[in-house]
Design goal:
The chain has 111 residues and is an alpha+beta fold. The protein is 30% helix and 14% strand. Strands 2-1-3 form a three-stranded antiparallel β-sheet, with no helix packed on it. A hairpin with a 5-residue loop joins β1 and β2. The two termini are 41 Å apart.
């Protein structure tokens, strides 16, 4: 469901037109003055992000003073430590990390 933007050649206003599908017929006109003399313009776009993208964008260097103020970094550090030492992570630790990432307080921890 795209949104197309057009600039009116008469009043120079920009109109955004929502289209149900790319194949829908389109007869754009200016939303300000009603003119049909409009030209398509390049519009901005949004990119979806995965949870991993968001987590990676907000991660800091572990030497930063504020690193552990983000609970996700605590889980990352624990995972990296187990991996670095070649030790299997206990299920209870995995559950605590997963519940913290989903926004739940780990069992036995009152927030």
């Amino acid at each position: 469901m795209p949104i197309y933007e057009y600039r009116c050649r008469q009043c120079q206003q920009i109109s955004s037109i929502f289209v149900r599908s790319i194949s829908s017929p389109l007869a754009p006109s200016c939303q300000s003055c009603g003119s049909e003399e409009v030209e398509r313009r390049m519009s901005t776009f949004a990119m979806g992000k995965t949870t991993g993208d968001v987590h990676n964008a907000h991660s800091m260097d572990s030497s930063s003073r504020d690193y552990y103020s983000d609970p996700r970094n605590i889980g990352r550090h624990v995972e990296e430590s187990f991996a670095r030492h070649g030790v299997d992570m206990p299920a209870s630790v995995r559950e605590s990390i997963d519940s913290a990432r989903s926004g739940e307080a780990p069992k036995g921890l009152d927030l």
